[in-house]
Amino acid sequence: MANSTSANLKLTVQATGENSGTWGQITNTNLLILEQAIGGYDAVGITAAATLTFSNGVLSNGKNQVLKLTGTITGNKNVVIPDGIEKTYLVENATTGAFTVTFKTTSGTGATWSTTDKGYKILYSNGTNVVDITADLGDISSGAITATGHIIPGANDTYDLGTTVAVWQNIYTGDLHLSNQAKKQGNVVDGTRGNWTLQEGKDDIFMLNNISGEKFKINLSKIKGDS
Questions:
Q1: How much is the pLDDT for 134?
Q2: Rounded Cα–Cα distance for residues 7 and 76 (Å)
Q3: pTM for the whole thing?
Q4: Domain-embedded: residue 98
Q5: Can you tell me the distance from the alpha carbon of 56 to that of 2, in angstroms, rounded to the nearest whole number?
Q6: Could you report how far apart the first and last alpha carbons of the chain are, in Å?
Q7: Whole domain around residue 186: which residue ranges?
Q8: Among residues 8, 15, 69, 191, which one has the fewest Cβ atoms lying within 10 Å of its Cβ?
Q9: Residue of 62, 16, 14, 13 whose CA lies nearest to 42
Q10: pLDDT top residue among 34 and 17
């Protein structure tokens, strides 16, 4: 019986009695491929559309667990893995250029980074399509969330914090920055768009017009009888 090849990582599956004198070398190569799949890293240039390789019995860039997509792209690009491969990936889109990047199978669908998304995705291929686990995690329920970095929405002027029927009780913040410049239409009063910062003073509250540079003080009236 001759050697065969595994379906996903393309390992050499050695038949009994085969490979006299080369069994150890083939086994070592298989172990290196497994190491690639568990913790391997590769930077893949995608200035043109890229197809990741899964060559039989040898190390190949598509077998790595972690991939960094690089290069200056001048159009929307696809990164393709062959149909039939079942595998997980951690992928960083480190390209430059305001174009989409899609990580997909040859014949199926995939996960797409938007034109402004230069971030990370956790992906897996089920052999037919590539699924974005990051996007499909659903709601996160937690008693408290502590962030040691910025919390940034995935798209500008797109997502809400709370709803009309589920509002946040209190907001504790430093300076408050207000801008509707990303909207196609301005406010409902005079139709203009603005960019303001609210800042606190010792005895006053100030509004800074970030477009004109002008500064204003909010008129405050003390409640009668309040000492």
A1: 83
A2: 30
A3: 0.66
A4: yes
A5: 14
A6: 95
A7: 155-221
A8: 191
A9: 62
A10: 34
